Amino acid sequence: MTTFDHVSLVFLVRPADAPAVSDEEATALQDAHLAHQAALAERGLVLAAGPLVDQDDERLRGICVLSVDAERARALYADDPAVRARRLAVQVATWMVPTGGAVFPGVRLPASTAEALG
């Protein structure tokens, strides 16, 4: 019998009513969002995260894999600056993965846009 690990998937979604912001504000919010995620990763809560490209639904902006239950994932991302600013919304699901299948060794998340663009 297969056993399963449970991890949380956080889907970051652009709401239809996301407020318009200047390019400078968007960059500052993105930097704050990345710093928030990097801090969660340093605590071992975010296993992997990244933006989406070539997605069928342009509202889907990114995915995060967390080592916590869905309720805790929602709480952690409620504190994300981009979520608080309503530029992103959060959808959470529990992903059942065969035991040991959700391993992302050595993944380090960028803490700013400049670092991400490298």
Overview of the molecule:
The protein is of the alpha+beta class. The chain is 32% helix and 28% strand. The chain contains 4 helices and 4 strands, in the order βαββααβα. It has helices spanning 23-42, 70-78, 81-84, 113-117; strands at residues 4-13, 46-51, 60-66, 89-98. It has a 4-stranded antiparallel sheet with strand order 2-3-1-4. A hairpin with an 8-residue loop joins β2 and β3 (60-66). The longest helix has 20 residues, at 23-42. The model has no long low-confidence stretch (mean pLDDT 93). Residues 17-86 form the YCII-related domain. Belongs to the YciI family. This is YCII-related domain-containing protein.
Radius of gyration: 15 Å
Number of separate strands? 4
| Contiguous runs where pLDDT drops below 50 for at least 5 residues | none
Return the average pLDDT rounded to an integer: 93
For the record, the CATH class is Alpha Beta
- Order the strands across the largest sheet as they lie in space: 2-3-1-4
Secondary-structure element pattern, one letter each: EHEEHHEH
Overall SS class: alpha+beta
Fraction of helical residues: 25-40%
When the domains are counted, the total is 1
Task: Please state the second-level CATH architecture.
Answer: 2-Layer Sandwich
Give the strand content: 25-35%
Straight-line distance between termini: 45 Å
CATH homologous superfamily label: Dimeric alpha+beta barrel
> Looking at the structure, what is the overall shape?
globular
Biggest sheet statistics: 4 strands, antiparallel
